[in-house]
Amino acid sequence: MKVSSWNEWDPLKHVIVGRADGTMVQAPEPAVFRDWPREGFPRGTYGPLPADMTDAANAQLDAFARVLEGRGIRVDRPRPLDFGRPVATPEWTQPSMFGAMPVRDVLVTIGNELLEATMSFRSRWFEYLAHRPLIESYFRADPAMRWEAAPKPRLTDASYHEGFWDAYDALPPEERVARAVRGELLLTEAEPLFDAADIARCGKDLFVQRSLATNRAGIRWLRQHLPQHRVHEVVFGNAHPMHIDATWVPLRPGLVLHCAERPAEAELLDHFKANDWQVVQAAEPRRAAAPPLSACSRWLSMNVLVLDPGTVCVEASETAQIEQLGALGFEVVPVPFWDVAPFGGGLHCATLDIHREGGMEDWFPRRTGSF
Known about the structure:
The protein is α/β, with parallel strands linked by helices.
């Protein structure tokens, strides 16, 4: 038993794969609302996702776990909670929680440290509890493991810009992109907030996206908490920035997959190129939109899980992405996973690497600009 993972590509030895059981369409809160009237959830309503969808998602998650185990990778699974229960702190009450499928949102492994993120949705404040039995078992088994939890946020109304969603959604797409680039997003800077899925790990360098779930204070906290790393704040031209792993995906040393529909800042591109990295535009997704009851984007096509520098798992129906990665020299493992999207994401979202071989390396020795 060893907790150690420094990047997104070293050979994977141990991973958590999420579960779909009990996942909820979230009740309204300052950070999020859902409005899916055609699927039975008009704005203001909430409840469990349909049983047939849950069964289909669990079947694909179970099959994915078997694929990984067949390649000699240890797979652990979380313990779902009763996500339909209301939760509360002394300062707010939330009628429901969310789920335990997208493990990557809540936890991140950085070297021998397993870090619990703050989370910025009230419905996800207690989600770490679904994973605590596993974390506790790792802590008992690995004396070198560091177990850390970022400061639990208060998530009072002061953490959110009042009336954000109604005003933001009324804007034309180009203005939403401009506001996102300027940092005029949902969260205030009242307290540090970040989702773990906004972190792309490249050894000594961590690239953290400022998003609807991650604010500057959260990035500052990570920078101060991890002084041995270079923590970079990055922004993309995305009207709805939410998690970096469907926008900027390191595949192996020297190669990163980029969603051209969400252009990176010129300074970030220059930094990667100055360090001899190739930035490749991801292939066009097969589908025009995510499936019903999903808050994800069609760019889950590039939400891949790298097993080692030469092997990558890709959603089985995303043939253009499969062909592109094959042409780049990867063995591609097609994994049917589209039914999982309504439960919180794709192959990368659904997993958390606990152990990858290798150590911390400096893949960006040339410093450029603010990097």
